[in-house]
Design goal:
Shape: globular
Strand content: 15-25%
Number of helices: 12
Number of strands: 20
Radius of gyration: 23 Å
Structural class: alpha/beta
């Protein structure tokens, strides 16, 4: 039997790019290819790149160079693929270059340089496709592209305008993931709450009934499938208020990932983002009245061109008043092709560093006090890692997304497996994590 050709894969960037890598892997696996965990064992290497920030572009170029040095045969895809000239100037020996979510082009390039070997004995691909995440959670991409035109962002130039998937296709994929053992669905896109706008909320047939391609309707349907449903990249449009009610009912996790980016009206206007932050504070208060368990995660940019000390102090005050549970921070850096590059008022690097440190200190303090309120409660957690030698498991609460938020460290946890959802009693907390013991003996 002829050996299946082996492919190495390097996947960079955000979860949306990770889903692209999973789709490429699934297609190639179905065609008889296998995958290598290292460069030496691969016949060819795919590098799925990120091109959002200049620092990310540099990381992608370095990854391409490493793959060329270690293997020699490299195909490039992903967001940086739209800058083919830059890639070829730096690495003229790459075999082929394609852009983001161009699955057919990537597969075609692999065929050209590493033809598949016909093999009727190749293992069947799992119904849920091949995944780069652990078995118990998966990213569920509901749309591509974005209709917003934020001045610091080039995503629409790279990935195009919003293109929503039919609701029935998303729900069928979610069902398949759950059948394969997935217990947590992480809903992602560039702009999740804009889902369906481009297709006028078109209905599609799912289990014999019509389901609208609408943010609320999709969230409700996903919440009824029996897995945790976590919403990421949710812009705070007015209709988001309805989804808070689903969280209060327990259908959707009480977790909102909202990219606020800033709070000062002056900076938000310059960013071309909604600037009425006082109204947003009122909405957050209302959300927490409806769903007291709600956790809000967000990212903020400091050192944006024209950001004054007053703007920054406004942001710090707002962060405390809004009680953002999980806050990330980025120091502004120019992105080639972004309108923000032309703005006056460049903030010196040392000032960016100071503001970054100050914001993270405030965010840490807010997180510390929010988590302290959980001590004594019994909560459900999902287990990500088991450490039998310590009689401990590393888990996450409903308020924690994988890899970006905190953890729940559970002691006296014998008999618990990765992927289990178990009840624990919170015994302590720190700035980012909770500590707990099983609420009842493990089976």
């Amino acid at each position: 039997m002829t050996q299946a050709p082996k492919i190495g894969l390097v996947s960079l960037g955000c979860p949306k790019a990770l889903v692209d890598s999973e789709r490429i892997m699934t297609t190639l696996r179905a065609q008889g290819y296998s995958f290598s965990r290292d460069y030496a064992g691969a016949d060819i290497v795919l590098v799925n790149t990120c091109g959002f920030l200049d620092s990310a572009k540099q990381e992608s170029l370095e990854a391409i160079g490493e793959a060329l040095n270690e293997n020699g045969k490299v195909i490039v895809t992903g967001c940086l693929g739209v800058e083919e000239e830059l890639i070829r100037e730096t690495h003229p020996n790459v075999l082929a270059i394609t852009g983001p979510h161009q699955y057919e082009s990537v597969v075609s390039a692999v065929h050209d340089h590493l033809p598949p070997v016909p093999n009727r004995f190749v293992d069947l691909v799992p119904e849920s496709g091949l995944k780069l995440t652990p078995r118990h959670y998966a990213y569920l991409k509901i749309s591509e592209g974005c209709n917003n035109r934020c001045s610091f962002c080039i995503i629409p130039q790279i990935r195009g305008d919003l293109v929503s998937r039919p609701a029935a296709g998303i729900l069928s994929e979610a069902e398949g993931l759950i059948r394969s053992g997935v217990k947590e669905l992480l809903v992602i896109s560039q702009d999740t709450s804009a889902y369906g706008i481009d297709i006028k909320f078109a209905e599609s047939k799912y289990r014999g009934r019509d389901v609208k391609a609408k943010f609320y309707d999709l969230a409700k349907e996903l919440g009824q499938l029996g897995a945790w449903t976590r919403l990421h990249y949710v812009y705070p449009y007015p209709h988001v208020d309805q989804v808070i009610e689903l969280m209060a009912e327990g259908l959707v996790l009480p977790y909102l990932d909202i990219p606020f980016q800033h709070a000062s009206p002056n900076v938000l206007k310059s960013m071309r983002r909604p600037a009425n932050q006082e109204k947003t504070l009122d909405r957050i208060r209302k959300w927490r009245e409806i769903c007291p368990d709600l956790a809000i995660r967000s990212n903020f940019i400091v050192g944006y061109p024209g950001e004054t000390e007053e703007d920054f102090e406004f942001l710090l005050d707002w962060l405390e008043e809004a009680e953002i549970d999980r806050a990330g921070c980025f120091k502004y850096e120019p992105v080639t092709g972004a309108p923000a590059n032309e703005l006056p008022g460049i903030v010196p690097d040392e000032v960016k560093e100071e503001r970054f440190a100050q914001l993270m200190e405030v965010a840490q303090d807010v997180s510390y006090h929010r988590l302290a309120q959980k001590v004594g409660r019994t909560i459900d957690v999902i287990v990500d890692d088991v450490r039998p030698e310590e009689n401990r498991v590393i888990a996450r609460s409903k308020w924690d997304a994988p890899e970006i938020d905190g953890q729940v460290i559970v002691d006296n946890a014998g008999g618990i497996k990765i992927g289990d959802i178990v009840s624990v009693t919170v015994t302590d907390s720190d700035e980012y994590d909770l500590f707990a013991t099983p609420a009842r003996p493990a089976n």
